[in-house]
Amino acid sequence: MKNRIRPENTNRFLTAFLLMILAFSFAGQAWSTGLQTFEMSEEVDLVHMAPVISRSAVEPGNTCDAALKVTVSPGWHINSDRPLQDYLIPANLEIDTLSELIPQDIQFPAASDIDLLGEKMAVFDGDVIIRFSVSTSPEATSGDYILPLRFTYQACNDRECRAPQTEAVDLMVTVGSGGRILSPDIFGQVENNITGGEEYLTANEVQKNPETESTLESLIRNFGFWGYFLALGLAYLTGVLLSFSPCTYPMIPITVSVFAGQNRSLGRGFILSLFYVGSMAIMYGLMGLIVSLVGGVFGAWLASPPVVIGIVAVFVIFALSMFGLFELQVPSSLRQRLGARQTGGGVGGSIVLGIIAALVVSPCVGPFVAGILLYIATYGSPVFGFLVLFIFAIGLGTLYLIIGTFSSAISALPGAGMWMESVKKFFGFVLLVMALYFLRTIISGEIYTILMGLLLIVYSVFGGGFDRLGSEDKFLPRLKKLLGLLAFIFGLYLLLGVMINHGFMSSKLSDRIPSSGIAHTNSEKSIDWRTDLESGLVRAREEGRPVLIDTWATWCANCRVLDKKTFAHPAVVTEMERFYPLRIQLETAGSDISREFMDRFGLKHYSLPTVLLLDSGGNIKRTLQGVVEPEDMVAEMRKIR
């Protein structure tokens, strides 16, 4: 009997055949997908820019808000305007000035922090709104004007970096009357005021520049509602400590006796002290309110190095006053005029004395009050500005309230002595720390860290960190020594951190050393990179060795990650022994070296890091792009002979 193919067998064979085709298709797709992670990605437009303006027309002599909206493709980021590493290319916006249009107050948004191999980096991603304002000349005639903008950026993802680019866009500004509100989603909302007209909320009112935010504002942003308690608690503690300064502490009993009298009951002393401290606190709060109201433009000023240097100089002068080099105080004529109005013996007298105490600030408290006023101006909130100075004054008046209420409390407090000078000098160092805080905006992170470390060590030496204590020394000397030793430890930690991370020479200089080009690693065995491409290829061919070519640039963050993470891995270093290692610097996309390199090896576009694997005959076998994991690099290298 002849064998016949039954229908059910045919169906089985057909089903199996189709399953095999599908399996090979999926396998092929997975294989190609796996390869795609190493192949060069296609050139795409990663960053889109669109200039926007807040009004359709601006009257001559007026100012309007504008912005550059930058959209970064998902999975990518660009360096912030203030990158934490000095080798990175910062985002930068340049705007031309016309005779009719004057751009000013460029403000970048807050940067996002990402981590690359344990190194924090400040970047922008998603939608980035870069705000500025445009002032029109009073002599400008009606019409349309083109304001040229140039935006410089460097795009990276977690594997590769593109070359820095500068793209130009134009912002059209119409000068004339009858303009309407544009882009309220960016610049704010339109609300009706009490006269029925339109009130426009400017960009500074809608979103303050986070790059110039104070530490007080940072507390609120990081801790939310509890940040207010931390900030106000710090203000109160500062006031309490300053009440122990040599200019204030000895005068407290005398002042209390003036407005409350020598013989006072518990209730009367409390009421009079409360009105004295309350009126003083309200006056301080009004100072903070006024400074906050005019502090809206303060964030823009901080973008100017001369302004920052001026602010730092003011803090240094205040600090020198706290160190006793000279005294800053209200002129004697004004003190005498205000002092002549001093009256006591009642609630009214306590209020008057409290107001005078706020206006005639003591030489110890005055510099610090001025420093706080300058400090809270960076926040720009009138309510918060009032509260900070109000609570600060409550802390400053706490001893007045205690001694005014409980006359016997004065015997429980420590007597006047040299310890008060230590308090004064401590706040002098605090003012220097505040000066460094503002200076950080115009100096590199390394210099800022070095200066802060040196300042802490200086404080530890002059603040009692190395004083010898005896058995008779009690709490305050031991507290001084503890604070001094802690300052020394943290200062030494900062200095050693800079030395270990960057060495004793500038990081910019080390980046230009041809033999390395990238930060060294701590591996016991390292790769002996060669930098001469032509002689390296010839020698490798003569020795019959495959070649690995690594491309890099000083601004390429992912090149450093690849070097630290992959090329420092022991397995990669071991496998590299049979390769001829070449490291070629391709600093810019348009340079002759970069173009010749790309043409020679058939690279379609410029992207770093890119690793080429050549066999012993000089033929390109693999092109690996971006940060490649050590095990993947070893696997690819083992395929090359």
- Please give the number of β-strands: 19
The largest beta-sheet arranges its strands as 1-2-8-5
Which runs of at least 5 residues are low in confidence (pLDDT < 50)?
Answer: 1-43, 189-214, 337-344, 503-523
Averaging pLDDT over every residue, what do you get?
A: 74
CA-based shape: flat
* Largest sheet descriptor: 4 strands, antiparallel
The whole-angstrom Rg is 34 Å
State the secondary-structure class: alpha+beta
Distance between the termini: 58 Å
Q: How large a portion of the residues is in β-strands, by DSSP E?
A: 15-25%
Q: Residue share in helices?
A: 40-55%
Number of helices: 23
Describe this structure in words.
This protein is an alpha+beta fold. 46% of the residues lie in helices and 17% in strands. It has 23 helices and 19 strands. Strands 1-2-8-5 form a four-stranded antiparallel sheet, with no helix packed on it. Strands 6-7-3-10 form a four-stranded antiparallel sheet. A four-stranded mixed sheet has the order 16-15-18-19, covered by helices on one side. The two termini are 58 Å apart. 34% of the residues are buried. Residues 1-43, 189-214, 337-344 and 503-523 have low confidence and may be disordered.
